[in-house]
Write a structure and sequence with these properties.
89 residues, mainly alpha, Non-ribosomal Peptide Synthetase Peptidyl Carrier Protein, Chain A, 3 helices, 0% strand
Length: 89
């Protein structure tokens, strides 16, 4: 099972990589930023979700999470942490 720190690192890393690919100026991701504030387009967000599901091995949007409820990076981290823990049960 991925630790809380592993999930956080995966989410932050994927966001940083995708933004760099898109040519968005690099800045540290703290977790408090809104997804909109980070300039994640709908295409980048879709890629992020696909890549995180593959890396973490869980899909929080398959059950109880609605994408519209994810307002910041920390919300996304928490959703993947819950999904990863649920996948082990």
């Amino acid at each position: 099972m991925l630790s809380t720190l592993d999930v956080r690192s995966a989410v932050h890393g994927r966001i940083t990589d995708l933004l760099a690919e898109a040519g968005v100026a690099a800045r540290p991701v703290t977790g408090a930023e809104s997804l909109h504030e980070l300039a994640l387009t709908s295409l980048l967000l879709a890629r992020l979700i696909i890549e995180l599901e593959a890396e973490i091995g869980a899909d929080p949007f398959a059950d109880d999470v609605v994408l519209a409820d994810i307002s910041c990076v920390d919300d996304l981290v928490a959703a993947y942490q819950r999904a990863a823990a649920k996948a082990l049960v």
